[in-house]
Amino acid sequence: MKSQVGQMFIELVLTIGIALILLPSLLTGFVATREGKAQQNQRLEAVGLLKESQEAVRSFREKNWNTFAINGTYHPQIASGSWSLISGSEQINGYTRQIVISDILRDATGAIVSQNGNIDPSTKKVVSTVSWTSPFFSNVTSTQYLTRFAGNTVYSQTSVSDFNTGSKSGVLVTNTSGGEVTLGGGGSGDWCSPNLSISAIDLPKSGVANAISAIEGKVFAGTGENASGVSYATVSISNANPPTGEILGTFSNYKTNDVFGVSNYSYIATDTNNKEIIILDVSVTPYTEIGFFDAPGADDATSVFVVNNTGYMTSGEKLYAFDLTETTGSRPILDPDGVTLSGEGEEVVVVGNYAYIAIGDDSSKEMQIVDVANPLSLRRLGYGDADPARLNSGEKGKDIFVNQAGTRAYVAVNGKAGFPDFFIFDTSTKTGSRPIIGKYEANGMTAKGITVVPGNRAILVGTGGEEYQVINIATESGPVRCGALNIDSGVHGISSVIEGDGDAYSYIITGDANAELKIIQGGAGGTFSLNGTFESSTFSLDNDVAFNYLDFVSQTPVGTTLMLQVGIAHKDSETNDCSNVTYAYVGPDGTPTSYFTASDAIPASTAASGFVNPGQCFRYKAFLSSTDQIVSPTLYDVTVNYSP
User: Fold this and answer.
1) pLDDT tens sequence across 363-383
2) For residue 299, with 0-12 CB atoms within 10 Å meaning exposed, 13-18 middle and 19 or more buried, which class applies?
């Protein structure tokens, strides 16, 4: 009995002890569960108030950026049917709601930073908070970065009249595509509007001219279609406007297939077996034959080109190099075997250490590249195939032009009707099959000659159709016709010259027996420059605005660059205008050493450089450059986005 009572007592003590341990936890859990349910409801209500704040902020931002952009603490309120922001926080059914608007800072890369940055006038940091204190303190919060975008205005320059209000140095305003800025092209004419107003020159006798070469002040011409004319004639070109031509001297006894002239000597490619190249002294009249080159084999010379003390000649399927350290007597061959081409060489041009040859038979390679760095050992390298898919047959390379950098070869090609007559090959690499960048179909012309002139223009000549066609090659992948002439007697060759005073002309030889040599003025005004700047006219506003974004459209062929900077200033405090203010031009990072190479955001004020934004006076400056006088970058349109 006593044992049972003692056992019951022990069990009671244990039960009470366990209860004392568990009951507080159970009671706390019951209370927490009850209060947690209330806290969950409070949080849901708070989140709803927070989302309402976010929508109110966005709505107010869109309605009036200038009012929205004032830093401070606010709360949202409906006024006249739309959201407004009222200064200070608010109390709503036990909740405290506030919206804090503040500036953001950006570093030189445009990234948001907490210190040591520049204020972005077009972005604000918005922190919305809803808090409550019962049953204990809690809150929900959100952070937004809002930018101005509604109500923005733009200012654009896109036409000839727009650009003509700016300041130009080494650049021109042209009207090929409705108004654009480009490097000076030479000449006061327009390549795309050719005419025959300049008096033509009648070469002696009645031969059909087919060879031409030109330098400033002289044109060298020859006949090869028949033996009825002189073999060669030098024509003096006056430096007048318009120029006039005068026959300085002639030379006969050979049938001329090509001619290359320099100041005192001319080199004629002939069909004479033991004198494929003859050398003329043209410094005095009568002209005399002083030297020659006898190439191996019995093929005629089809073309000739001279660089320093080396001459190059195509004959049949061969390219030969010969020594010109002296110009008299028989000139020795440098590489006895020459180099075998993929077909018959039609025309050769040498730029740097490479020769570029138009291949003139039914070869699958209309253009060939040969390494001539060592004239004693010529090496065949790459090639250009105008018809790699073999969609045509019988296409022939007729003439070739290569830019100064040797990165582009422009080839005139004969093919079937509907097949392109003009090709641009990428020759930046010299080996293997060189890719076609662009091509152009001349609509019925049989192409015979090609030249490329400043201002991104190529001129293709031939017989049939429009015999003189000007091609806009600013967009290399899509050359387009921009002008033409009908010369029904046919055009058999072309050469172009930019004079030291900036005048530019193309010289063509035609089938017109009474006026074989014709002169066509081209260019776009002003002497060509490899570098130029364009500074826009001033865009002036009554009040400070934030300039947000610079958008521009340009074309930059290989070897050219186009960059922009922007300048913003406050009006002169005394005159209240922009006429005497100073602009600190900067690029997208806010420094004077950076440039816009593509459309980008305009930076905020940069105290170190003197650049300001917002401001009332705006200008931009464009910097154009080229490594080759025949190609130029082009600026078509400029637009700046700004916000009041």
Assistant:
1) 778 999 999 999 999 999 999
2) middle
- The pLDDT assigned to 418 comes to 81
Placement of tokens 């009850």 in the chain? 34
User: For residue 30, what pLDDT band results from cuts at 50, 70 and 90?
Assistant: very low
Separation of first and last alpha carbons in the chain: 100
306 dihedral zone (left: phi>0; alpha: psi -120 to 50; beta): beta
Q: In the predicted model, is pLDDT for residue 66 greater than 80?
A: no
153-181+530-643 topology per CATH = Jelly Rolls (2.60.120)
Rounded distance between C-alpha atoms, residue 533 and residue 531, angstroms? 7
| Per-residue pLDDT tens over the stretch 256-272 | 899 999 889 999 999 88
User: In sequence order, what are the beta bridge partners of 452?
Assistant: 458
Q: For the purposes of burial, counting CB atoms within 10 Å of the CB of 520, is it exposed (0-12), middle (13-18) or buried (19 or more)?
A: buried
For the stretch 468-473, contacts whose Cβ atoms lie closer than 8 Å and that sit 24 or more positions apart, written own/partner, are 468/194, 468/508, 468/520, 469/442, 469/445, 470/191, 470/192, 470/194, 471/422, 471/440, 472/176, 472/192, 473/410, 473/424, 473/438, 473/557
86 within 8 A of 98, measured Cβ to Cβ: no
Query: How far is it, in rounded angstroms, from Cα 629 to Cα 561?
Result: 13
- pLDDT tens, 598-625? 998 898 876 556 788 889 999 999 999 9
Characterize the bridge pairing of strands 153-157 and 112-113.
unpaired
Residue 228 CB neighbour total at 10 angstroms? 11
Q: How many CA atoms lie within 13 A of 305 on its CB side?
A: 24
pLDDT band at 33 (very low <50, low <70, confident <90, very high): very low
Q: Indicate whether 34 pLDDT > 60.
A: no
Amino acid, res. 618: F
DSSP per-residue string spanning 44-84? HHHHHHHHHHHHHHHHHHHH-HHHHTS-EEEEEEEETTEEE
Give CA–CA dist 435/453, Å, rounded.
Answer: 22
Burial status of residue 7 (CB atoms within 10 A of its CB: 0-12, 13-18, 19 or more) = exposed
d(Cα 380, Cα 232) in Å, to the nearest integer? Answer: 32
The pLDDT of residue 184 is 85
Cα separation, 596 vs 547, in Å, equals 15
Q: What is the domain partition of the chain in residue ranges?
A: 2-147, 153-181+530-643
State how far the alpha carbon of 245 is from the alpha carbons of 195, 233, 242, 369, in Å.
17, 12, 10, 36
Q: Which residue has the tokens 């100073």?
A: 582
